[in-house]
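Format notes (please read before filing issues)

Several people have asked whether sequences and structure tokens are stored in separate files. They are not. Every record keeps both together, in the order shown below: the sequence lines, then the token lines. Line labels are part of the format and must not be stripped during preprocessing.
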Amino acid sequence: MIIISLQINLYQSQFDRDCLEYENIMINIYKYLVFLLILFSLQPIMIYGQVDRNDINVEQGKLWTDSNIVRILDCYAELPEVNMKRNNLNFLNISNNKSIIIAEYSARNTKGGMIYFYRLLDGRQSELSYLGKSIWINHMVMSHNEDYIIVATFERKSSRLQCYSLEEERLFWENKRIDDYYFGVWFSEDNNEIIAFGSDAIYKVKIQTGEVINEMEVIHDEYSFDGHKETWVNHSTSGKYIVIWQRQAKFALLDFFRKSANENITVWDIDKGKKIVSMPLDEKYFRTAVFSPDEKFVLLGGYDRFIHFWSIEKNEIVNKVPGEAIHMVLNSNNNMLAISLMNDEGNFEVKIYEYPDMKLITKIYPFTDSYTIDGIMPINFDKTGKYFAIERDGKLFLYDTSDWSVLWCIETDP
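Then the structure lines:
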């Protein structure tokens, strides 16, 4: 009996070990499946691998590429050290009425976005606002009458709209409850409304109160803004039209159950919620766009190293100019087009052209040690076209466009 009992116990022990081993195997398989799921979900982080140093900004644990969608907050992954001078400013706006340049200061030692003023007279710096810890600017636009600036932020879980009075130099109002993310913000032609293109709808917001007075979802019915898509939105001078296009950046597991990126580039009349023109993207991957002052053309900068002139009336590309455009700014008063380009050596440079003849006026020296943030190089004209501001290699330059002489130059990292 004792021998039989011992044998039974031995068999039972062996059975328990086999069960435990089987359980461990199943746990490991489960962990592996979970790891694969996470890997696919984080594919935009993992699959990019080597990021070109001209397209990267490592700052306070955040990674930005030239897409405003591929954005990871609190990504503490080890990245190659970037030993170079850097730009510190975003979203340059020049106000003649207030004689200031407004920009977001976002150097490495800051823990949130800061809005700075620079005097046109001598470049002297002052602070308008500190947005707060881990709050950064996604868009910043000045009103046509230069009385206000509107700021769309991005944060960990939400986004907010902020309106600042330039006359009183203070925050006018803030609205945190409209949308989670904004692809673009701008002012109506009469300066009475703000148009905000959010992830759920297009909103018209009253400038005096921050109250939403209209929502439109008809455009959003044709697009999906979830998943790993890159979306570009730009507006015309009047604010009446927008151009929008998408591409699927990467595919993760859940993207197979989501709506794919729209395969056309389209101009919309946002007041009527109506398509004006549309054309297939095919293999043409554009990264920047700007409307002509008469709103008859859209200039498109693409990865094919050409700037395309898209006629809205004819709905076709009517002209192409060589150049791999990263960002474009067009001034209607002096008919000058500023284009930040990537040259054959992989460095940034800025060329100023006469528009629409595209005759080269001047070239600003290559940005050997600089790079853009979210595809936006810090360049801009003032409303009259008298001044042109640009940051290169951590210095802010103000040019007189009559002869392109430098009026002053200051370090942007105090």
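For reference, the curators noted about this record: The first helix runs from residue 2 to 41. The helical segments are 2-41, 43-46.
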